[in-house]
Amino acid sequence: MDNLSFDKREGYIWYNGRLIEWKKANVHVLNHGLHYASCVFEGERAYNGKIFETKKHTERLFNSAKSLDMEIPFTQKKILAAKDDLLKKNSLSDAYVRPVVWRGSEMMAVSAQATKINVAIAVWEWPSYFDPEQKMQGIKLDIARWRRPSPDCGPVLAKAAGLYMICTLSKHEAEAKGYSDALMLDYRGQIAEATGANIFFRMPDGKLHTPTADCFLDGITRRTVMKLAEDNGIEIIERKIMPEEMSDAEECFLTGTAAEVTPVQSIGNFKFKPGEYCLKLTKAYSDLVNRI
After folding, report:
1. Tens digit of pLDDT for each residue in 168-207?
2. Is the distance from CB of 74 to CB of 117 less than 8 angstroms?
3. Which CATH superfamily is domain 132-289 in?
4. Which of 23, 56, 159, 240 is catalytic?
């Protein structure tokens, strides 16, 4: 990917039912989504011209919007078609797909009943190829000081923009210290997730353990990898996991649309060795998403 600012790129964006030039896809500075975080979105990837699990992502987009009391003014069928049309219009095969829904600028207060619900979709190039040897070395994670909130503190199961501020803060702090990302605990002090990806551990019992997604996003990639693990004879355990248990873990990896399956070599002072499960599931996931 190039480093060109996202407001200066060429191409087309789907904006409230129309394809418009990329640089003209703008909103007013006084829109409700910017000031009050009334915004939800999705992160999807296309491989060989086909968007992976596009229906599940679209369903989640609508569910997230409903959680924020927003009714999307288009059908799921329309959104699905728009994503495919946009890939073709921008001549992209391997790409990142970003649908976003937000409240407009008709009202500027906490109340927003009269605001228009806007929908846009953008796609941009995102190569899917990784150097297998480099990837299998694993990344290093810090342990964030911010925690995922309790379910009674917000719509924690929605992919809502406001929930990501502590992720940005955590990732900035981690990168400033030389890490790639950060592990976030939840409000109870249990392991939750990384800043934008779910997490798995191979424990001495030979099973894959992953935190129960009761206060953070139950990722679509997470569920895909769980199914791939079962298909490969690996048992999955969803449970509460405390930080000190990482001293027993043998392997660790992250899962997400952007991360795909990314091995982890360390979290703070805890060390892991990417091995059989990381290699097997990295390959299985790559084979699945690149299947034509």
Report:
1. 999 999 999 999 999 999 999 999 999 999 999 999 999 9
2. no
3. D-amino Acid Aminotransferase, subunit A, domain 2 (3.20.10.10)
4. 159
